[in-house]
Amino acid sequence: MDFYGFEPSSRLFLGTAQYPSPAVLGEAIRASGAEVVTVSLRRESGAARAGQGFWELIRSLGVRVLPNTAGCHSVREAVTTAEMAREVFETDWIKLEVIGEDDTLQPDVFGLVEAARILSESGFRVFPYTTGDLVVAERLLQAGCEVLMPWGAPIGSGRGLNNVFALRAMRAHFPDVPLVVDAGIGLPSHAAAAMELGYDAVLLNTAVAKAGDPARMAAAFAQAVEAGRAAREADPMEPRDMARPSTPVIGRAVLGDA
Amino acid sequence: MTVSIELNGEPAATEAATLADLLDEKGYNGAVVATALNGTFLPKGLRADTPLSDGDAVEIVAPMQGG
Fold first, then answer.
1. Is B23 in Cβ contact with A43 (below 8 Å)?
2. DSSP letter string over A214-234?
3. Can you give the pLDDT at residue A258?
4. Taking CB atoms and an 8 Å limit, are B61 and A43 in contact across chains?
5. Taking the CB of residue A250, how many other CB atoms lie within 10 A of it?
6. Catalytic one among A95, A171, A190, A229?
7. What's the DSSP call for residue A151?
8. How far is A82 from chain B (nearest CA, A)?
9. Chain B: which residues have CB within 8 Å of chain A?
10. Which of A24, A46, A150, A217 might form a disulfide with A211, Cβ 3.0–4.6 angstroms?
11. Can you tell me the ipTM of this complex?
């Protein structure tokens, strides 16, 4: 499994926003073992130069960055943001977000496909933040995407995997496409469940950043992702409706009225 | 000559002849930033050759925390 030729040792991708301090962010990234972290671009003031210290911190951690187009509502905004990100972060990776609805932060899948096509044609490696829709997924692949990132639940909601049916269907439909559950994960058990479904990685932010102890939660997520992946590789049993004794029945002593 | 522009959404006056001069004038020298002019990405290598006119909208962005 690789993401545009890059094979990370950790299948946990971590966001860098909302931590109580830069120091805690650094601790959480280290504790998570994540090799891929998401970053963004915002207006910089020439007086405050707030972004410069953040960028130095990220560079010191030796991780690979996946810049996002968070907050973009149009194809044009997303494409321009991606172009700026490519220059600043010196990477052709882009987590493509084109937001269509503000209450759910649901992707505008029409704009997403269009922006993915434009960016792929200009050499970007696009990681599209999308829904569980299989037809949209197919269009994204046709547009040049080689990775898909369906949502688990709305961004920042912590609701986990809202539509397991859709996620399972996407895994089955695209067995060879790297798939990442992005957004909505609130607990390590949600991340483990995504990995058990056969997802190649999970991307999360708020669940770690807003935990009481972000570094400890980051470590918990690392364990959950490893456990879920191992379980997938170990080929889980099929669930059944009725009980079946796990202890052999044959040879049981007869000890009274049957 | 003073030019009236919009810098990151705020009205700004500048003596800068080019986008590169604007970055120096406003304290961005040496900072890791990307620029857009009137909604279009303006690569680093073109800043020195890009004159500013009245009414131009300049965006200057830098790395920031993201999810």
1. no
2. HHHHHHHHHHHHHHHHHHHHT
3. 59
4. yes
5. 4
6. A95
7. B
8. 9
9. 8-9, 23, 26-28, 31-36, 39-41, 43-44, 59-67
10. A217
11. 0.94
d(CA A202, CA A162): 15
Helix (H, G, I), strand (E, B) or coil at B26: coil
Reported as a single tens digit per residue, the pLDDT across A69-107 is 999 999 999 999 999 999 999 999 999 999 999 999 999
Contact (CB, 8 A) for B44 and B60: no
CB contact under 8 Å between A45 and B34, yes or no, is no
pTM score of the predicted model: 0.93
Of the candidates A124, A74, A76, the one whose C-alpha atom is nearest the C-alpha of residue A98 is A74
Chain A / chain B CB contacts < 8 angstroms: 110
Between the CA of residue A184 and those of A140, A156, A180, A208, what are the distances in Å?
A: 21, 6, 12, 12
**Per-residue pLDDT averaged across A215-237, rounded?**
97
Smallest CA–CA distance, residue A13 to chain B, in Å, is 10
pLDDT band at A210 (very low <50, low <70, confident <90, very high): very high
CA angle centred on A181, ends A42 and A65, rounded to 5°? 40
- The answer to whether the CB of B15 falls within 8 A of the CB of B66 is no
- For A131, phi and psi rounded to 5 degrees? -95, -170
Span A41-63, mean pLDDT?
93
Q: How far is CA A211 from CA A35, A50, A187, A205, in A?
A: 21, 24, 10, 10
Q: Looking at residue B63, what is its pLDDT?
A: 96
Section A101-129 average pLDDT: 97
Task: Residue A179: name the closest of A221, A205, A148 by CA.
Answer: A148
Q: What is the pLDDT of residues B25-45, one digit of tens each?
A: 999 988 999 999 999 999 999
How many CB atoms within 10 Å of residue B28?
21
A210 assigned to active site: no
